[in-house]
Each structure stands twice: as C-alpha cells, then as structure tokens.
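Whether sequence alone determines local backbone shape is best considered at the level of individual chains. The sequence in question and its structure tokens are set out directly beneath this paragraph.

===
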Amino acid sequence: MKTVCEINKCAGCMACVDICSKNAIKIEDNLFAYNAVIDETKCISCNRCYSVCQENNLIELSNPILWKEGWAKDECIRSNSSSGGYASEIARTFVKNGGVVCSCLFQNGEFNFICVENEQDIDKFSGSKYVKSNPKGIYKEIIGILKMGRKVLFIGLPCQVAAVKKFAKNNVNLYTIDLICHGTSSPKVLDIFLRGHGCTLKSVKDISFRSKTKFGLNNEEKRFSVPTVTDEYLYTFLNSTIYTENCYSCKYATIERIGDLTLGDSWGTTLQQDLMKKGISLLLCQNDKGKELLEDADLELFDVDLKKSIEFNHQLDHPSTKPTQRNKFLKGLKEGKTFKKMMFRVYPKRYLKNFIKTAIYKISSNKSRGGK
C-alpha cells in the first residue's frame, strides 16, 4: 500500500486527511499502528499530503527560556483539572481577551477537537485523555478563523501542535500549547477494555482517566476497579504497553519543544505533599508568545528544578521504551481475547496481585457496611 509517511510511523494527526482535496487518504488503525493510506485511484500526485505531514518534515523545536510550577489561583479551576489547572486558566484568559481556543473533548464516543470562544465552554476540555484523539476537520476550521484575523490557541499533543503549525504556516495569530505526552493508544484498545465491562465508547456519556495523583478509569455509572487497584487499561497505558508504534520513536520527546508553552504534571516537585494532592502543573515557556499567554492568566508561579522535572517526566528527554510484552498483548487483543485474559497471560504477577487486593478491599467494605 502507498502511505503518506513511512509504514507504521503515522502519528494520526490527520493533517494529510484535511489537506487532501480528493478525499484520497484514509487512516488505517490496526491497534499496533496508524497508517495514512493513499487511494491511488483518487490521488492526483499533488504531494500536499506529504508536505504537510509533520513526520516527513523537520519541525523547528526550541529550548525553554523559563520554567515554572504551580496552579491556577481559582480553586474551582484547579479542583476540576487533572493537574494544577494551568491549561484551563490560560484558555479561560485567552477567550476572555477575545480569542478562540481549540482542544480535545470526549463526546458521542469519540475524542475530537472543537473550537470555543466562551469562558463557560472551557470546562469541556478539562481532564487528561490517555488515548489517541482525532483532530480531523479542525485544521480547516482553524484556518478559517485565522483568516478572519482572530487569534487561536491550540492545545494538543506535540505531534498535533506540529501539524497545526505546518497547516497554518506559523500564522502570527496562532498560539500553541503542547502537552507532555508519554505516548497514546488506539481508541479501539480502550473500546476493547470497556467491552469487557459491559459497555462501549459509544455507550458511555463521559469518561475519566485520573483524579489528581490517583489513576483509574471510570465513567458516570461505574468505576472499573476498586480504589486500591489500577485497572488493566491504565496499567498497560502507564507502563507503555499499548501505545501505537510511532510513539516509541517520538521526535518530540526532548527538552526542546514545539509549542509556545509546554504543560504537564510537576511530578518531581519539592512542594508539600498536600499541595501535590490538589494538583501541581509544570510549565515550560519557549518564546514571547508563550510569555504573552502567561501575562494575564491568574496563576501561582514557583521556581522549579528543571533537571528534576526532566527526571520525573522522561518524555522531556527520550521516548517511552517499548516493553517486550507489547506485541503479545496487542496480538491477543486483536485476536479477540479480553483485557483480563491478556493481563493474566502477559502480566500474571500483576494480575494476581490485583485479584488479591480487590478481594481484600471487597471483604473490608462488606465488613464495614455490616458493622454499620
């Protein structure tokens, strides 16, 4: 098959899909990797897809000029965020000043991008999303807004920020925030996990991957593991088992960054533990646009040890390492095995440990209820 970039190296940014006037490109997802496949019967060999692809082209990265940690001063914003609320507060300020913010949200069973220009809509973007999102269509929408002379703030993964900068040709009114990313998995993998619990991505109204420092998948109706156990999806995500192939050679896994600002969790903080429980964000600023984004935002900003931040956020130094168990795990899922079965086969010690901890928690809970 003919592909836009090297086989199995597609990041799924969808820029090539948006730029193709002949609808000749389809993103194929086989759990292991994405591929941007070209329909040669439709293709007119204009090479626009190749030119916009951030995998095919060297993207200029910049060293940070300042680095801070802290949180949004508004306690509601901080409380509703996975981390310290930097992204939400900066976005709120941006729309308050007349700009448009574009980022990812979960709706109708998909992780898509939308543009908003009202402060009340910023909450739609809150929360970490440990899965591949789909920016298809958003690039054209952003170009349309920029052509009207309006400012746009795009918040996404580094590969997506690179794609929007290529698409918009670094428009002066385009502002970007890249999120520290350790890798992403196909939404098909998440759907397989949910099906093992009697639901699907299409059937759940909302989904949450973590609350501050506690990792656990849950939706409005149920949690998928007891509080003392990290569920199978989050476990395999956090240990890099289920990422798509491109993530293990990510060229954005470096202290040099693609966005005007870089945001993540300040895992290496030396601040008090009770502050960590409330959420502490890490911020890297690369240029004057990044400084502009910070000027009006109501943020607590503290000095942070950059070396320590890199130590606790390895994606600021190198890509995630592919586990030896990855191929066996994903192959089993692709063949129709459940998450639980593959956890037992590939990570038997972890599976048994979780089984025991779950049983102990349930017994303790039953005793507590009985005591009342």
